[in-house]
Amino acid sequence: MNPYKAGLPLDTVVIFNMGPVSYLSSGGIRSLLGAERTLKEREGCIYLCNLKSYPLDVLKMAGFDQIFSIKPTVKDALQSGSTAPYSERVNG
Question: What is residue 87's predicted lDDT score, i.e. its pLDDT?
């Protein structure tokens, strides 16, 4: 069933706890970009949190730190995702 057609509520915020991730491949980045694109269509966004230094460096070198909302902890991501209006979630 297509949730758009069924009128069901759609998720607008997804939080990825990246703590266990020590390596981020181009395929992983593509998956994150796909999730970001889907949520942006719903006026939402994803948060990446608990990033280790290597994956964070990869995202920064490629400029993806400007696309994804990166937070230091899950708690920070939860607070940002539940209270911020759309424009702040995307730009903050």
Answer: 46
